[in-house]
Write a structure and sequence with these properties.
3 domains; about 375 residues; Type 1 dockerin domain; alpha/beta; eight-stranded mixed beta barrel
Length: about 375
């Protein structure tokens, strides 16, 4: 769980408007800022006024999986550019299957494309029917969706209410995977957003749904406090240099870097994977990769690394132990001889990359031959 210190030095208190209807915002501390999240229900907005209302950021509803793009999304985005205010976005997801969550990520990216985001982009989970999926399943689906968005270069997070984070989503898994936590917790009795259970720590707290500010005169608005000063200002681009990693034993793509995460899909034998990120968790090396339209993680133990500069045209020629141009039973026999005589010359047949030639390499080669021969 991430820890965020709230510095004790008071910076400012935003006072009520002279017009008499504006919400009084509680004091903000160092490394904190206020913002609103909006959808078409907020109506017309005076973008010239929003910063004067004490707002440092706006998070736009991009749309919903059921009804598509928010009718005010493009207009509001242009308004934030005019106002020079930091901007993020969210998509309300009512999906119920892993494939639907994948489609939601792809839908969201069509709305985000070509725009600049200084704040994170979020998936919004609040659909009551989704609670029937169970905590681990829903968390796995959410992470699968966020993995796709993150792999595309977006700083990504999840929005829900505190009850969901306690009962229907595994907040610890989401946090450990490196995603942003934004939650709603009312009632309005929680007037000071610094008064809350520290075990429920988040990056952004939506602490009121009944805010009134001059720049949004037609309707109330959600008020948020961020316990972090966001300033991403980054272009969207893909992951870094890949590592080519073929393997012979089937691997399971996990939703996060650890065995506690749910399974997304199985990757078949003899698949070459582009590993875009490596993370060490509990003494195990985990690699992030894209496969079958999903993004996830797998244990890298025993997999063969190729440098980005040294990938052969056919990586599986590596298993041609006797160098006769084919991989078959003759290679298995040649490898067995290396193992029996314990020859250092056989290190070229170290198929699992552990610095030895032994029965584990033979098992690896046999698995390849059996799979190749069908």
């Amino acid at each position: 769980m991430k820890k965020f210190s709230l510095k004790k030095c008071l910076i400012s208190t935003v006072l009520a408007s002279v017009m008499g209807f504006q919400t009084v915002l509680p004091a903000v501390y160092a490394e904190e800022e206020y913002g609103v999240d909006i959808s078409r229900y907020q109506g017309n907005i005076n973008w010239d006024q929003i910063a004067n209302d004490g707002m440092s950021f706006v998070i736009l509803r991009a749309g919903t999986t059921k009804y598509g793009i928010d009718s005010k999304f493009e207009e509001y985005y242009e308004g934030t550019r005019k106002a020079g205010i930091k901007t993020g976005a969210y998509l309300f997801i009512s999906s119920m299957s892993l494939e639907e969550f994948k489609a939601a990520a792809e839908q969201f990216m069509t709305y985000l494309e070509g725009k600049q985001w200084e704040m994170p982009i979020y998936i919004d989970l609040e659909e009551n029917e989704q609670t029937t999926l169970g905590k681990q399943t829903l968390t796995t689906y959410a992470l699968a969706c966020m993995n796709i968005l993150s792999d595309a270069g977006y700083k990504t997070g999840i929005y829900s209410n505190l009850n969901w984070y306690r009962n229907y989503l595994d907040k610890d898994q989401i946090d450990k995977a490196g995603y942003e936590i934004w939650y709603a917790q009312y009632p309005e009795a929680h007037a000071d957003p610094h008064n809350y259970d520290k075990s429920d720590m988040c990056r952004i707290w939506q602490y009121s749904s009944q805010g009134k500010i001059n720049s949004i005169p037609e309707n109330s608005v959600d008020l948020n406090i961020a316990y972090h000063i966001y300033d991403e200002r980054r272009a969207v681009n893909g992951a870094g240099e890949p590592w080519m990693v073929p393997f012979l034993a089937r691997r399971t793509m996990k939703a996060g870097p650890g065995n506690e995460y749910g399974d997304i899909l199985n990757v078949p034998q003899n698949t070459v994977l582009n590993i875009s990120e490596i993370r060490y968790e509990d003494g195990t090396e985990w690699g992030k990769f894209s496969y079958g339209g999903y993004v996830g993680w797998c244990d890298l133990y025993g997999m063969v690394n190729y440098s980005a500069e040294g990938v052969p045209e056919d990586p599986y020629m590596y298993y041609d132990v006797n160098m006769d141009g084919a991989v078959n039973a003759a290679d298995e026999l040649a490898l067995s001889k290396y193992i029996l005589c314990d020859s250092t010359e056989g290190l070229s047949a170290d198929l699992n990359g552990d610095g030895k030639v032994n029965v584990f390499d033979r098992m690896r080669l046999m698995a390849y031959i059996i799979n190749a021969e069908g």
